[in-house]
Recover the amino acids of this structure.
């Protein structure tokens, strides 16, 4: 299981009004674990008012820069990104898991590959890492990058992108599409939609020559671009996505759980929520697992190994107390947040409220 | 990955063909269904490989022995590739592999409930024992072609890391089926009767692996972008292909 390691913040600088770029250094002993591939991300953890938040941010450095660097844009109401933008300073320590993610293709220096990249807002971070790496390590490759932003001042890494364009003259072309800033050519103003994509393919991009397209941005933008790429003949294995959002809520909040004391009754009133439907039933407190009781009550709850190993049956206890007999899959922070492996979960209290939907 | 605020509900994104890219952006119910699909694949590959291992020693010649060894090896490798993805969700890989007896089989002639049976998530067809070389080759051809349809379907799924792994696996699974077909071509020269009996035994059992024609779970998985073609459509496509493979061999 991936473990957290301390990283030292060696540099932090403002990139735009609401984004910072943070350079990080692992301990010497962890250097190998933090060797990354272009396009990967780091997952950080930090305690906010007693609740652990985990956030993932893409690495923006190229493989040849010899450092670990992430870009973090401040999100309205986002606990972690606001803290990183406003309180984090050089010399601080951040806990991070080794790099993860598959948003890349293998480097093939001998090939003359044609890449296409689409980056919406802070979606530029992993794409920047890819651009820098493939242009440096695949000398015959060329890259067309389409960046979508609200306005010029919100373009992350704007200067760095200009420098790269000059460094790789003829191999890197960059198209900026700005939502709320008029430009001379209509194509470059507004949001990316199906019509803009058609114009891009007519005027800028030869779809047939493209080997791989990378897309990172808001969901609607990714859908529109992917659809257009398919219409222009790209297959699914030529289109690489990196999704923006995490499934976790952005705001740190206290968990409101009433912990009932264990009692001596020999059955438990259980209500289980699955796919938005809640079913209540009574189950014996004789060592029967909540998952088995739910299945006996005709609920199609997810599970696989039934040995506390795979985590398919993960659910969240919203009220009541349980005991997990075996847990090889959930981490301490998940258990603290109320998650259980329902196949291993024996009720202790007389009432139990559990959900597979959270 | 940037954790910007959601720009559209994840359900809408998935309904429109959007892809999820890592354990970090998978919602809870999607997570449960995805892990269930991956477990079923891993368990079936492990059970398939373990059951086929005996065929190495039934093999009538060196070529057949190599083919059987290769199939046994590669199916375990395919299981590991998907198990590696499960590890990203917290699955304990070492314990998972040890949780069940993958070579265990039930009796040949007792009907196994097509729904989950026993402790692991293998497809029901992997609870039936093989009886010898011919039987192993027939099962491998029929289940091999069924695997191409089932895995081909999942290779379009909305969890991009799984889709990518399955797309890499598909050509090798195809080769396994073809190796079986080459073996079967040699078998029918002298043993058509025995092969025909095995075909009759395995056809309905392999057909069952596609699941019930009407399935609430399919509808749920489709809404999540984890499935596209329904069970019956896949089963029909497989049956047509199986018949096209068997007819030239006089086995249909």
């Amino acid at each position: 299981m991936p473990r957290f390691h301390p990283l030292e913040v060696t540099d932090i600088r403002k990139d735009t009004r609401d984004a910072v770029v943070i350079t990080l250094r692992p301990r010497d002993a962890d250097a190998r674990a933090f060797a990354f591939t272009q396009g990967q991300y780091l997952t950080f953890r930090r305690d906010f008012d007693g609740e652990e938040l985990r956030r993932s941010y893409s690495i923006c450095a190229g493989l040849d820069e010899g450092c670990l660097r992430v870009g973090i844009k401040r999100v309205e109401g986002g606990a972690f990104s606001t803290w990183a933008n406003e309180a984090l300073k050089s010399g601080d320590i951040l806990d991070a898991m080794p790099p993860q993610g598959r948003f890349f293709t293998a480097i093939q220096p001998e090939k003359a590959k044609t890449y296409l990249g689409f980056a919406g807002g802070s979606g530029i971070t992993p794409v920047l890492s890819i651009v820098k790496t493939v242009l440096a390590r695949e000398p015959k490759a060329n890259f067309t990058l389409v960046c979508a932003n609200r306005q010029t001042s919100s373009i992350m890494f704007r200067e760095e992108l200009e420098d790269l364009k000059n460094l790789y003259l003829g191999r890197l072309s960059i198209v900026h599409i700005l939502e709320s800033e008029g430009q001379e050519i209509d194509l470059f103003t507004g949001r990316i939609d199906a019509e803009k994509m058609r114009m891009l393919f007519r005027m800028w991009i030869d779809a047939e020559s493209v080997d791989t397209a990378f897309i990172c941005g808001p969901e609607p933008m990714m859908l529109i671009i992917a659809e257009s790429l398919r219409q222009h003949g790209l297959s699914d294995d030529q289109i690489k996505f990196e999704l923006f959002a995490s499934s976790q809520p952005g705001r740190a909040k206290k968990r409101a759980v009433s912990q009932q004391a264990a009692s001596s009754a020999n059955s438990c009133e259980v209500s289980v929520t699955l796919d938005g439907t809640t079913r209540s039933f009574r189950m014996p407190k004789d060592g029967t697992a909540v998952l088995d009781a739910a299945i006996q009550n005709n609920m199609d709850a997810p599970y696989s190994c039934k040995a506390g190993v795979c985590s398919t049956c993960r659910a969240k206890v919203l009220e009541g107390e349980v005991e997990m007999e075996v847990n090889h899959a959930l981490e301490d922070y998940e258990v603290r947040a109320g998650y259980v492996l329902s196949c291993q979960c024996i009720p202790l209290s007389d009432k139990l409220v559990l959900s597979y939907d959270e | 990955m940037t954790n910007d605020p959601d720009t559209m509900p994840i359900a809408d994104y998935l309904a429109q063909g959007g892809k999820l890219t890592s354990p970090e952006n998978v919602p809870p119910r999607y997570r449960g269904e995805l892990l269930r699909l991956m477990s079923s694949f891993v368990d079936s590959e492990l059970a398939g490989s373990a059951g086929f291992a005996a065929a190495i020693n039934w093999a009538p010649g060196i070529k057949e022995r190599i083919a059987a060894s290769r199939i046994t090896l590669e199916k375990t490798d395919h299981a590991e590739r998907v198990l590696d993805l499960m590890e990203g969700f917290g699955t304990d890989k070492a314990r998972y592999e040890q949780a069940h007896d993958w070579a265990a089989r039930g009796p040949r002639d007792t009907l196994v409930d097509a729904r989950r049976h026993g402790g692991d998530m293998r497809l029901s067809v992997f609870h039936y024992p093989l009886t010898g070389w011919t039987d192993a080759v027939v099962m491998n051809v029929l289940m091999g072609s069924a695997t191409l349809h089932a895995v081909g379907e999942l290779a379009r799924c909305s969890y991009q890391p799984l889709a990518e792994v399955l797309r890499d696996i598909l050509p090798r699974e195809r080769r396994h089926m073809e190796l079986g077909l080459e073996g079967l071509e040699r078998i029918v020269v002298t043993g058509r009767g025995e092969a025909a009996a095995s075909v009759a035994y395995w056809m309905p059992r392999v057909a069952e692996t596609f699941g019930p024609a009407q399935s609430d779970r399919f509808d749920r998985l489709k809404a999540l972008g984890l499935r596209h073609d329904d069970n019956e459509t896949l089963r029909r496509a497989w049956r047509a292909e199986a018949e096209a493979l068997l007819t030239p061999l006089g086995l249909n």
